[in-house]
Specification:
By secondary structure, this protein is of the alpha/beta class. Helix content is 63%, strand content 12%. It has a six-stranded mixed β-sheet. Strands 4-3-6-7 form a four-stranded antiparallel β-sheet.
């Protein structure tokens, strides 16, 4: 319990730190709240004065009542303006704060290490940035709108009641703590329930995102029934958490209302006895009953706000967890920008594992000369794609070094530089990547091709498309290169999407290439053409080729055969076949009659 309280306090401190820059609006909101409450509390006095002007039948001071009515209209008008301006300030504070939180969360997402995104479902991350922040906004807005107004109303009402009659005010104050005790008792039990509800909502969002994004795979494998069972299980869990959280938060209002009615009855009884004895007038009694009602009403509102704030704080804690995640290793202050990479790549005694207790790549050594074609083959899970991740510095090595060559001013000598001392952007711009999984964004075909070279001319784009054999299918599209596609390619086939990704690399032609099953979704006839285009493209460029189909890498200068994160064989196609080792077995398993 103490741990939960500590986390709540920490979350509140973080929320307050975001509110600091909007403190001027906060001060204005408090002043307007005080003015609004003062005006509202002045109205019962005017009503009491009007009642006291009715002496008996035929003895009514209509002139005095008319003056009181004019004062009431003015007071109500001022109250309305104050409340409107207060709501404007509260909305500005809330939604500006939410904008800042969401922007900071998204900015943090850009610098988080890839392992954070790989280790969590996309839906769960989206749920934090969208759903949790929205819930936080609702609680924050309610807090500003009702919490401060309620507190000021309670304090102001007490002062006004004390000015009218101290004894009746004491009765009110004695009974009031019951309401606070009830609200506190319930609030303590709602935070953990709202936290569980928030986590279950994130799990559900993640599952829905996964199922919708992979609907074809689900149907192809007949996984619909299992998916429905899993959804029902998560949905039931969310319903259970939501029911418990809603139940406890819902009983707060009836419980405090009961206490408030006791207060109202007590004021009515004691006030009536005083009025009979002549201690107060009927108008003052009416005023006191109105105050008793106004005094107890904020307790209902505050109790509702407290339970809503529990939900808001639980959601805020989740978004702050994302914001406070450890970012990727920062670049050196004197990091070098790669402008003229030579094509040399060296890996020395590299160790890497995704999970500490499961070693993957161990004592990996490799020296690649400019223009060499390096093919990487091996069974699934041997570390082929992991090696690509390390070359691009999507992940940092646990130990050892990866270095690339940078030409000096003469262009004749290459200085090997550790990638840790290079800017990530310039390192990644030195590579051109074509992956098995395609990635296209919403926009025109031209926009997607020129992504790596935004200033490319139409002639350059068309030339790259012709080189990758994508020009013919692009011309058949409704608007050709100006055809707008949705995210991930829309109605384009997988092969067409992969051709566009190949065209993108053809256009920019960086000095080093990474081809990870680059032709896996293309028909055999087109693949032969593209392999020729690749051969031309790779001339003079250092290339890393990951392939399962060994027919595509027979012309590589070096073939690395990997197993369990280690290079177990190394050589060209002919020498590896002559050794009759693991590569020989792999090759024969694909081409044996």
């Amino acid at each position: 319990m103490s741990g939960k309280k500590g986390r709540q306090k920490e979350t509140i401190k973080k929320v307050l730190s975001y509110l600091k820059q909007y403190r001027i609006f906060l001060v204005i909101s408090l002043i307007l709240a005080a003015a609004s409450v003062a005006m509202q509390l002045y109205i019962p006095i005017l009503i009491g004065n009007a009642i006291d002007l009715i002496v008996k039948k035929g003895q009514v001071d209509f002139a005095g009542m008319f003056e009181v009515l004019k004062q009431m209209i003015v007071v109500i008008g001022i109250t309305a303006v104050c409340q409107w301006l207060m709501n404007v300030c509260n909305n500005k504070i809330t939604y500006n704060t939410i904008r800042d939180v969401r922007k900071q969360a998204f900015d943090k997402l850009q610098i988080l290490p890839l392992k954070y995104v790989d280790g969590r479902s996309q839906g769960e991350i989206v749920s934090r940035i969208i759903a949790d922040v929205d819930q936080f906004a609702d609680g924050l807005l309610m807090g500003f709108t009702q919490f401060f107004t309620g507190l000021i109303t309670i304090i102001g009402t007490l002062l006004f009641m004390l000015s009218v009659n101290i004894t009746i005010t004491v009765v009110v104050v004695i009974v009031t703590p019951l309401s606070l005790v009830v609200a506190s008792f319930i609030a303590k039990r709602t935070y953990s329930m709202f936290q569980a509800q928030s986590e279950a909502r994130g799990e559900q969002t993640a599952f829905i995102d996964e199922m919708v994004g992979n609907q074809k795979v689900v149907q192809a494998f007949g996984h619909e029934d299992e998916a429905l069972e899993r959804f029902d299980e998560i949905n039931e869990k969310l319903a259970d958490c939501s029911l418990k959280a809603t139940f406890y938060s819902s009983i707060t209002n009836p419980a405090t209302r009961f206490v408030n009615n006791v207060v109202y009855a007590g004021v009515g009884l004691v006030g009536a006895l005083y009025a009979v004895k002549g201690g107060i007038t009927v108008g003052q009694l009416s005023c006191f009953l109105s105050y008793a009602n106004q005094y107890t009403k904020p307790f209902n509102e505050i109790s509702g706000v407290v339970t809503e704030l529990q939900n808001a704080l639980a959601c805020a804690a989740r978004i702050f967890e994302l914001i406070e995640e450890e970012p990727q290793t920062p670049e050196d202050t004197d990091a070098v920008t790669v402008t003229t990479p030579s094509g040399d790549v060296a890996l020395c005694h590299v160790d890497f594992s995704y999970v500490p207790e499961k070693p993957l790549i161990q004592d990996f050594n490799l020296m690649v000369k400019p223009g060499q074609r390096v093919a990487i083959v091996g069974p699934t899970g041997c570390g082929k794609t992991t090696l690509i991740n390390l070359l691009m510095r999507f992940y940092d090595v646990n130990s050892g070094t990866i270095a690339i060559g940078i030409d000096d001013a003469t262009g004749k000598n290459a200085n090997m530089t550790d990638v840790d001392h290079l800017t990530r952007k310039s390192l990644r711009l030195s590579y051109g990547m074509v992956l098995q999984e395609t990635w296209l964004r919403a926009g025109t075909i031209r926009d997607n091709i020129s992504m790596g070279k935004p200033d490319a001319t139409d002639e350059e784009v068309i030339a790259a498309a012709k080189a990758s054999h994508a020009h013919s299918f692009i011309k058949r599209l409704p608007q050709g290169y100006d055809t707008v596609i949705s995210e991930d390619g829309g109605s384009l086939s997988q092969g067409q999407k992969q051709l566009l990704c190949i065209t993108r690399v053809m256009l920019s032609l960086p000095p080093m290439l990474i081809l990870d099953e680059a032709t896996s979704s293309i028909d055999t006839r087109t693949e032969i053409r593209i392999q020729r285009a690749f051969a031309k493209m790779m001339e003079g460029r250092t290339s890393f080729i990951v392939a399962h189909r060994l027919s595509t890498i027979q012309e590589a200068d070096i073939i690395l055969v990997m197993r369990d994160g280690n290079i177990i064989e190394q050589g060209n196609h002919e020498t590896l076949l002559e050794e009759k080792g693991f590569y020989y077995e792999l090759f024969n398993s694909q081409f044996a009659r």
